[in-house]
Amino acid sequence: MPAKLSEKFLNAGAISNRRNNEGVWIKVIQKMDDVYTDLIHYQVELEKKNADMEEARQFIRSVLASMTDVLIVCDLNGAVQQSNRALSELNGKPEDALTGTHLSSLFDGESSAIIGRVLETNRSGRSGEYEMSALDASGKGMPLVIRCSPQFDHDGALFGMVLIGRPVGELRQAYNELNHTIFELQQAQQHLVQSEKMASLGRLVAGVAHELNNPISFIHSNMFTIKKYGYRLCEYITSLHNQLGDEADNPLRKKLKINHILDDIPSLVDGGLEGAERVSKVVQDLRRFSTSHREDESEFDLVESVKKAAMWVLQTSRIQAELVFVGESLMISNFEGFIHQVIVNLIQNAMDSMEDYPRPKVEIHCWQDGDHAKISVRDHGTGILEEDIIRVFDPFFTTKEIGKGTGLGLYVSYGLIVDQCGGQMTVDNHPDGGAVFSIVLPISRGGDNHHA
Predict the structure, then answer these.
(1) Selecting from 3.40.50.720, 3.30.360.10, 3.30.565.10, 3.30.230.10, what CATH number does the domain 298-442 have?
(2) Which of 19, 48, 103, 389 is deepest in the core (most CB within 10 A)?
(3) pLDDT tens-digit profile of 81-102?
């Protein structure tokens, strides 16, 4: 082969090798660019996840720090892994100093046996609630209610437990507040039921009271007329007897029992009048709620009004009772007539309850409590049976003998105080004996001229 041709082939091979090498390097460089791009992407993702983790960690720290309940996280053997600020504030030790210590070192000796049960219950994967005493900074035990819950990993394997404790005192206070709220709700429910019963009765007796009132008025008026006629007839018969003489009049007079009739007429008429007046009073009590009853609201001295009502009852009562009155001048804006009527009724009931007592006594207290005026009327009798307290304000309920009470007095009084005067009225037995009726009234009704 000629030399020139051989050199030509060698040059062509070299050029081909250079071209192949350049293509390989280009591919390598492109691959490196792809890897570098992926690395930058992974770095951005990693930094974002780290930021999210740090944010989540900071959020958990803030939640743990703000908890008022004690929080303890420990492993299956009871070694503390994490706690919160509430526990540190309780025992006076920093959070990192508590890490690694055993659970039993945080509680008093009496709680050691309980901690054993806690660990055993947790190993079985069950939750539990216990009362233990955690040691405070001075070494004294503070009772806590501890709620223990097992801790599982993402595969469902048990690896520890979480304990959350709250002071027993707070729980008892919350329990007492709940009981008080329930009691207030029950009282409000009773008042609503009572008000509805009174409203229903008012609608029911409206027509009955109206129909009874007319014939009772006729009877009452006619009895007065008969009484006047009776006097005239007695005078006429006596005059005839004197004119005829004993011989002519005595046989017929004895046969018809004229003397007996003349003697009975006054008592019969008086008895009829008394019965008509009693029925009329019952109808008037019924009509107080079944008809529109208006009174003007005014400003008056509550203490003076209550005192006048008390003196009026004592002066007209046949029972001589001792009156103890406590109260100073107290101006309120309300319906004085209604309140006067209620106080008269309460004091009269108090007197009646001590009818057979040798030394009857009534205590009345008036005082101001914030925006309200309060009145209490207490007798020194036997009190009210527990099963009857809830029925005291029911219409027609009475413990008096037949003919001595209608059972409408307290019913009417309750309605006047609650519906008309915007107040409250309750009853209870005094610890030292006797019944106590309590009235709460607003100092001012705020211009609310409500009329029933």
Answers:
(1) 3.30.565.10
(2) 103
(3) 888 888 888 888 888 888 889 9
